[in-house]
Write a structure and sequence with these properties.
- It contains 4 helices and 7 strands; from the N terminus they run αβαββαβββαβ.
- α1 packs across α4.
- The longest helix has 18 residues.
- The two termini are about 30 Å apart.
- It is of the alpha+beta class and about 170 residues long.
- The protein has a 5-stranded antiparallel beta sheet with strand order 2-3-1-6-5. It has a two-stranded parallel ribbon with strand order 4-7.
- It is elongated and about 55 Å long.
- Belongs to the universal ribosomal protein uL5 family.
- Pfam families: Ribosomal_L5 (PF00281), Ribosomal_L5_C (PF00673).
- Part of the 50S ribosomal subunit; part of the 5S rRNA/L5/L18/L25 subcomplex. Contacts the 5S rRNA and the P site tRNA. Forms a bridge to the 30S subunit in the 70S ribosome.
Length: about 170
């Protein structure tokens, strides 16, 4: 499992490379946030997305509702516009394994993740265009939607976070 691998080999590599004096300074992944924005969605679509994201992440997602009414978009306050879920601890590592070793290789035209997607504080964000790359989801002529993933780490710089994620197995491309 990914967590046991992290505890030994990756931690020792990071301690050597960045010469940490305290073991608590070694960066690790703290959480993964998944967001699916649907815009204006009907009740059936939202229920389908909630079911699919629950299958993918093994955790029930939260329905995101509109904060303000926007007449140009025919959007009223309180209407469902998306779904989000935050993964921590064991579920996070299980999802990360399935993402790295099963889902991303199944993605069409996938060449790798860009190293420029860090935010300056050690967090990494990227998007997936199709949710059907996960084997848990059965595609039955429904709507295909994308999702945004943010991997939050305890690293303070992009360099530390890049080294951590590349050692875990993220397929980065120049």
């Amino acid at each position: 499992m990914l967590k046991e691998l992290y505890c030994n080999e990756i931690r020792d590599h990071l301690i050597k490379k960045f010469s940490y004096t305290n073991i608590m300074k070694v960066p690790k992944i703290s959480k993964i946030s998944i967001n699916v924005g649907l815009g204006i969605a009907e009740k059936g679509i939202i229920d389908s997305v909630v079911k699919d994201i629950a299958l993918i992440t093994a955790q029930k997602p939260i329905i995101v509702r509109a904060r303000k009414s926007v007449s140009n978009f025919k959007l009223r306050e309180g209407m469902p516009v998306g779904v989000k879920v935050t993964l921590r601890r064991t579920l996070m590592y299980c999802f990360l394994e399935r993402l790295l070793y099963i889902a991303l290789p199944r993605s069409r035209d996938f060449k790798g993740l860009r190293k420029t997607s860090f935010d300056g504080n050690g967090n990494f964000s990227f998007g997936i265009k199709e949710h059907i790359i996960f084997p848990e989801v059965d595609y039955d002529s429904g709507k295909i939607y994308g999702m945004d993933l943010t991997i939050e780490t305890t690293a303070t710089t992009n360099e530390e976070s890049l080294e951590l994620l590349s050692k875990i197995g993220f397929p980065f491309v120049n």
